[in-house]
Write a structure and sequence with these properties.
globular; mainly alpha; 146 residues; two-stranded antiparallel ribbon
């Protein structure tokens, strides 16, 4: 199943039918797992500690955004994202500027895909001191999303 999310930030499907096709591939693979036959698809995912593919793609996007904005890729992140620092209490303090383009062709670009979700993350997730701390905090938030 790792193959379904390998480099997902670069090939993320643009159409709902493609997402559904990939989800069916994952569903088929999970049906072959012994001991989980009696569980529904969502129960199997929960049992294995996995998310649906859409949520896993979002997770990968947010992890890469963290790397660009806070981690070892900050130099590249400064070119990709426009950070709007804020001291307001109602946000995460590290909002990225959401750019709008007239043609809708860029809506699936990584920087546009991730901006809205990044801006919605709570401050304690965004301000994580390391990727090792960011990941479990992000997973906790993602369990309640989508």
């Amino acid at each position: 199943m790792a193959a379904l999310t390998y480099c997902v930030q670069f090939w993320a499907p643009q159409f709902k039918k493609d997402e559904e096709l990939l989800e069916r591939v994952q569903w088929g693979a999970m049906r072959m797992m012994r001991g989980l036959e009696h569980l529904s698809y969502d129960e199997r995912l929960r049992e294995l500690g996995l998310f649906r593919l859409k949520k896993r793609r979002l997770r990968g996007d947010l992890i890469n955004a963290y790397k660009y904005l806070k981690g070892g890729w900050q130099e590249d992140g400064a070119r990709l994202f426009s950070v709007v620092p804020s001291d307001r209490t109602g946000g995460n303090g590290q909002k990225t500027k959401h750019r709008k383009f007239r043609p809708n062709t860029r809506k699936n670009f990584f920087t546009l895909r991730v901006t809205e979700h990044w801006n919605r993350l709570p401050r304690e997730v965004v301000d994580s001191p390391s990727l090792e701390i960011f990941n479990p905090r992000l997973d906790k938030v993602l369990c309640s999303l989508l």
